[in-house]
Amino acid sequence: MKEKILIVEDNPQNMKLYEMVLSAKGYTLLKATDGEEALGVAIRKRPDLILMDIRLPGMNGLEVTRKLRENSAFSHTPIIAITAYAMKGDKERAIEAGCNAYLSKPFNIHELTGMIAEMLLPRQKDNV
Ligand code: MN
């Protein structure tokens, strides 16, 4: 079975795009539209990778990431931060919060799928 990816995204159109592209790659998808929901789904379903929109209503993606990193179950889960309007220092803040990688829109969708595949690779090797 392919890996489980949790998509945290409050914009329905973006969510639809990620869903379409990632389900075509065969991943099992989990979804959350805000930070609280993301934490709940992550704890219940243990995703293999998390796609984290930074701008979310309420708790933002960086806060969600910090909370996840406090939990040892998620200390090594790859988290890719995504932001719509890149501002100076965004990437540094994302990495500091515990994200492994950072993409700012607009990005090529192949950049995203390539990054995901690469980040899931070590896990696949471990499972052999
Ligand atoms: Mn957003």
List the defining traits of the structure above.
128 residues, alpha/beta, Rossmann fold, globular, binds manganese (II) ion
Topology:
Layout: E1 4-8, H1 12-24, E2 28-32, H2 35-45, E3 49-53, H3 61-70, E4 79-83, H4 90-97, E5 101-104, H5 109-127
Parallel strand pairs: 1-2, 1-3, 3-4, 4-5
Helix pairs in contact: 2-3
The chain binds manganese (II) ion (MN).
Structure, described:
The protein is α/β, with parallel strands linked by helices and 128 residues long. It has a single domain, classed as Response regulator (Rossmann fold). The chain has a five-stranded parallel beta sheet, sandwiched between helices. The two termini are 13 Å apart. The mean pLDDT is 93.
Q: Please give the share of residues in helix.
A: 40-55%
User: What small molecules accompany the polymer chains?
Assistant: manganese (II) ion
Low-confidence stretches: none
For the biggest β-sheet, the strand order reads 2-1-3-4-5
Overall 3D geometry?
A: globular
The average pLDDT score comes to 93
CATH architecture: 3-Layer(aba) Sandwich
List SSEs in N-to-C order: EHEHEHEHEH
- Specify the structural class: alpha/beta
